[in-house]
Amino acid sequence: MTREITTPIAKFIAEKILKQPNKEIKSDEALISSGLIDSFSLMDLALFVEDTFGVKIEDTELNADTFDSLNQLAGLIESRK
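RESULT FIELD:
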């Protein structure tokens, strides 16, 4: 199930946020703490997650504790389904 969640998120980040469609993002790669995505991009990512997976992301969750890797995001999404 995790791959079904992480693959579309990785694709969104690579294509829409980084503008590097061929970039591979590993499931445990740091997104925020490494500077790969910034606070503006984080909002876009949260909206994508909400729209794509039908879950609600709280503003307090938009941080490196919950959004710093694809695995963390997948865990958050799975806990809401």
